[in-house]
Design brief:
Elements: E1 6-10, H1 14-25, E2 30-34, H2 45-48, E3 58-61, E4 64-67, H3 69-79, H4 88-118, H5 124-145, H6 157-166, H7 180-190, H8 193-201, H9 212-216
Parallel strand pairs: 1-2
Antiparallel strand pairs: 1-3, 3-4
Length: 233
Amino acid sequence: MDNPEYTVYLYPSPNSLKVIIALEELNLRYQTVVVDLAEGQQLAPAFAALNPNRKVPVLTAGDLTLFESAAILEYLATTHDQLMGQTVQHHWQIKSWLYWHAAAFGPMAGQAHHFRCFAPEHVPYAVRRYSDEMNRLYGILEEQLAGREWVCDTYSIVDIGLWPWVRHHDWQGQSLINFPSVQRWADAMAARPAAIHAVERYPIQLIAPNKYGVLLNQTAASLKASSTEEEIN
């Protein structure tokens, strides 16, 4: 792409998908670099220099580098003066729900995915714990969406942030039959051209079980394990 405004370092995942949807909604120029998590490219010094946490996504714009998907969404929306509300009150309502999605919904969904679908051993307590917590969080989202088209009344980065996780509600042990307002909202999100394009371009890629060790067995020592520069595609 000629003169891309942004570069996104990603691996097809809910957190990365959020950023692509936002870029598409805002009609921005961007290019992507896939970081192969299964091969440990996130541990390479080149990537660690972009994100000390060794996770995707990362967004770069000139000399600016951002990590954490919620921060990236907030930056894009604020910089381009869209998707963040038109009044001070609305702006802070959107921020509150954005942080709820980043602190509660996303992390708990990720844990539910892990223990229900990907953990190398079945841990009944963990499965029950995170499935029940996701049920509670879907209940909160259902309450908020009752009588509203979008989470914060008008379409915003909150909708973009939540939807990639809600797409995989079955991985979290949930059925949207029990949450009709969430179902209606999710269908509306799925029909948006930006979401359609993002999903088609970056479908979720499941990591083979024999590659889990790269993701699951990291400790502080693993931060220093990759002393050799690795290429990022």
